[in-house]
Structure of Beta-glucosidase:
Amino acid sequence: MTAATPAPSTTESATRRFPPGFVWGASTAAYQVEGAAREDGRTPSIWDTFSHTPGRTLNGDTGDVACDHYHRYRDDVALMSRLGLGAYRFSVSWSRVQPTGRGPAVQQGLDFYRALTDELLDAGITPVLTLYHWDLPQELEDAGGWPARETAYRFADYAALVGEALGDRVEMWTTLNEPWCSAFLGYGSGVHAPGRTDPAAALHAAHHLNLAHGLGVSALRTVLPSRAQAMVSLNPAAVRPRSDSEADLDAARRIDALANRVFTGPMLHGRYDEDLFADTARITDWSCVRDGDLELIHQPLDALCVNYYTPSLVSAVDSGDVERSDGHGASAHSPWPGAGRVAFHQPPGARTDMGWSIDPTGLSDLLLGFTREVPGLPLYITENGAACADEPDATGRVDDPERIAYLHGHLAAVHRAMAEGADVRGYFLWSLLDNFEWAYGYTKRFGAVHVDYATQRRTPKSSAAWYAEVCRTGLLPGDPGAAG
């Protein structure tokens, strides 16, 4: 833990009880865990294509098998039950249920999600469904992908299709997961699928993802029961200037516009801020934003979901070298169009195996910031966790005290934010299982459960036992140093 997050006192930790009804869960994503890439009518997504392209992922790793969750979901749900999870957040593979991104569904694909959902409900675990976690059908990418307006309308059709199939079982629905990554890592820096490096395309993709969200919420509302909740999962950046200088404050403003307000502005307030347009005017004229789009995007939400891992420390560039340590992979192309004179810095202190600094105060700052920005809108943390270099010892046990310390610090930050007025309804650990970590392949382990990829053996780590006790009691224990 960083110096900014002191260990709690005994008195303080003894009062850290979360309220009854607080949702305790874990998250995964379809391409990262399912495998069965060519079974039952599924066709390639952009991540299939990207991962099979030489040089795109470490060691040439792909999600062809991943954690084989498609075949092992019953065992995985039983494992969730043993861990005491109250909810499971999963995503639907678009190309598994609608292989071309158009037209009728493949019933075998939908049947998998029906069966998974039924298994969860039978175990007393709430299903939380994400419609899009980065795996666009390749055929839609070939037609233009997210920079093309038509993709947003195809998403709305897909949302209605899945809603009609699972609306009788699922009450919590998320449209998009981290659209910033889809737009700016997929079309800007190219370190994520589809690997394009066009800053104008990245900005157009951001707008069309916003449009897809709004159209998707509207489509869901037409087919879901009134009790269903419609949400979106964003990965807002806790942006901090390195100093109070005018230049550093402006650097933070630029990154805030590109990381946060490009999505929260339209989704939460029905507007784009003028400084975003001014910063990017040399890249695009934003003619992709048509009359009526903002009204379509600005749909009422039942909750806002926040994914958080690490804050961003930025400054104006004061030399010829930019320290590009923003944690988004090596690339000659920036994921920050219009912010070429902004430098990213690594704060001192502990880091995860991703090289990301550990600072829970960023999470509490975001939660309290949204509480002020959209008072009355409930919040969920739908991803939070740490990659650690943990492996079984000679006895097969996997101890991961670093992850326990990370989770403890961040749950304490959530509790502090709630004490100050943030209406946080639940927390989802990322991730249930070690899995395919995108361009990093299988080299980074985020799971509370260790996966031996050769045998598919699941081994709950010490953090899984720790988290299970938190789920059972709703109480955050004392010093995490005693837990490992």
The CA atoms of residues 3 and 458 lie 35 Å apart. The two ends are 14 Å apart (CA to CA). The domain at 10-482 is CATH 3.20.20.80 (TIM Barrel).
